[in-house]
Every structure is written in C-alpha cells, then in structure tokens.
C-alpha cells in the first residue's frame, strides 16, 4: 500500500503556518537583541533624554572594571555548580525511580513539585531555612559547630543561591532523564546482566551512552538556565550581596541599568552575556555533540 503524502495547495500556506513563531522570535528575541546592541554604542543620561555615540567605549570600560571581572568569575562558579548539581541529582533520582518502576508514582510526583514553584517563592523558602536566627538548617549547622550567616559571609550566600537554583532545576532534569531511561530497551540491560556485567558496568557501557542525547540537551538547557533564569532567586534572597559575592552577570545588568541608570554599560553587558551564551551553546554543539550517538 502506497503511503499518502500531504501537499499544500498554495505556496503561501507554509509561510502562514510559520508566521506566529517567526513573529514571536522577531518581537521578543531579535528586536530586543538589536536594541541592546544599538544602545551599547551610546552613552545616555540617566533619564534617556540625550545620548552620545561612543562606539566601543562601553565595552572597553566594561572589561577594565574590576567589579565586572569579579562578576564574571562568580558567574562561572555559579553556573558550573548549578549545572553539575542539578544534572547529577536529576540523574540519581531518575535511576532510583526507574529501578522502582510503576510503584514510584508518588515519588515522581513529589520530585516534580519543585519545578512548579515560582523562583521568588523557592528563593524565600531557602532564605528562611538558612536564616541565621530562625532557619532550621542554620540552627542544625550551628549545633555541629558551623556558624552560617549569608547576610555577612559572601561564601555562605553564594552556596545558598547555588543550592536554591539547583533544587529548582532538579525536577526538570529528573523528568527528561526518567523518560530517557524508560526508552532504553530492557533486553540490552538484561543481556548484559546475564553476561556477568555488574550494575556499574551496565550503567557505564549501556545506559550512559544511550542517555547521551538526553544529557547533551539538558546540558545546554541547564547552562542557559543558570545564566538567565536564576535572576529571580538571587533578587529575592541576597540582592547580589553581601558586597558583590552573588552578583552574576545577568543580575549586574539589572543593577547597572535599573539601579545605577547606566544604560550604555548595561546594554553592553547584555550584549556580552548574549555572546557568551551563544558561544557556549555553539561550542557544545560543535565538540560535545560529536561524542553523542543518536
């Protein structure tokens, strides 16, 4: 029996179907990016009433600023930590749920809940848990001789926002890892077990390679999440402090643009941040994807 092929009667129909997505991309992505690039070439007054063309002076001043270089280093530590923790825990929980099977529905539901929590709400929860006066975690740490105070200690504050951001993303990674594990044919794992391969060898030689496409996708998503979607968590907990210990790049864009009203520098920072994320994504697709077998 010959398969039927669907064809469009007119040449304009495919473009009409693409029009909504193209409009969203242009309005919410390409247009703001173009505006940021254009604004970064000017020095504006705080009220946006006058501007002067300065070329690349905003970018030069940006990389000469010690606070920006510090923010860059903090972003590297923060993003790498959030991606590693959330991916690791997501995979660990998915392996546990897949081993239990269908009886783990309650377990799966409880793990999915954190993803439905708004970033600001998740941030406040962790802020209260680690509050040095009333927080249960801070009291527990104090009982074993560790005095926690994210209001004064920059390292404590950075650890807290890393944990909060990772906790928020674990559910997302868990769902995709669990779907990937359930898509692996059981016959392959069972055959390896019959051949004498232990659990770790089966995971390393069979399960992990077959999870490579899922892991690659989640790696890209988690990097973008750590760079952009963690703004609400930092804003609701530390506000970038104490000092600048939790001021990552996306939060520095906000502080310089909306608090200091340095619009040119803020636009230049947003362009640099966009280039960094695009570069990281391209690097992942160019080099890491080569090791991924679909």
UniProtKB/TrEMBL annotation:
Q: Name one GO cellular component term.
A: plasma membrane
Which ranges carry the ABC transmembrane type-1 domain? Answer: 72-284
Q: Which UniProt keywords apply?
A: Cell inner membrane, Cell membrane, Membrane, Transmembrane, Transmembrane helix, Transport
Q: Which GO terms describe its biological process?
A: transmembrane transport
The membrane topology noted for this protein in its Swiss-Prot or TrEMBL record is: Multi-pass membrane protein
TM annotation in the entry:
12-31, 72-97, 109-129, 206-228, 263-283
Keyword Membrane, does the record have it? yes
Subcellular location(s): the record lists: Cell inner membrane; Cell membrane
**What's this chain's function?**
Part of the ABC transporter complex UgpBAEC involved in sn-glycerol-3-phosphate (G3P) import. Probably responsible for the translocation of the substrate across the membrane.
Q: How does it assemble?
A: The complex is composed of two ATP-binding proteins (UgpC), two transmembrane proteins (UgpA and UgpE) and a solute-binding protein (UgpB).
Family in the record? Belongs to the binding-protein-dependent transport system permease family.
Q: What is this protein called?
A: sn-glycerol-3-phosphate transport system permease protein UgpA
Source organism of the structure: Chelatococcus daeguensis
């Amino acid at each position: 029996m010959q398969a039927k092929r669907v064809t469009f009667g007119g040449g304009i129909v495919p473009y009409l179907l693409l029009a909504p997505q193209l409009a969203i991309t242009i309005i919410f992505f390409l247009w703001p990016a173009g505006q940021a690039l254009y604004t970064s070439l000017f020095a504006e007054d705080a009220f946006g009433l006058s501007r002067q063309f300065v070329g690349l002076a905003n970018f030069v001043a940006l990389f000469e600023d010690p606070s920006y270089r510090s923010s860059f280093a903090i972003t590297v530590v923060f993003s790498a930590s959030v991606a590693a923790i959330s991916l690791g825990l997501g995979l660990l929980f998915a392996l546990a749920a897949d081993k239990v099977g269908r009886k783990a529905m309650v377990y799966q539901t409880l793990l999915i809940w954190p993803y439905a929590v708004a970033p600001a709400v998740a941030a406040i929860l962790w802020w209260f848990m680690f509050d040095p006066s009333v927080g249960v975690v801070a009291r527990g740490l104090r009982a074993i001789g560790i005095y926690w105070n994210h209001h004064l200690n920059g390292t404590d504050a950075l650890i807290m926002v890393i944990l909060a951001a990772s906790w928020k993303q674990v559910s997302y990674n868990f769902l995709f890892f669990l779907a990937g594990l359930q898509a692996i044919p059981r016959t392959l794992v069972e055959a390896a077990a019959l051949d004498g391969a232990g659990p770790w060898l089966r995971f390393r030689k069979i399960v992990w390679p077959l999870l490579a496409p899922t892991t690659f996708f989640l790696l890209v998503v988690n990097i973008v999440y750590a760079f952009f979607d963690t703004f609400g968590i930092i804003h609701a907990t530390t506000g970038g402090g104490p000092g600048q210990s939790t001021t990552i790049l996306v939060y520095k864009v906000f502080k310089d643009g909306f608090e200091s009203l340095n619009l040119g520098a803020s636009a230049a920072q947003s362009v640099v941040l966009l280039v960094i994320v695009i570069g990281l994504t391209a690097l992942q697709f160019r080099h890491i994807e080569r090791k991924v077998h679909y």
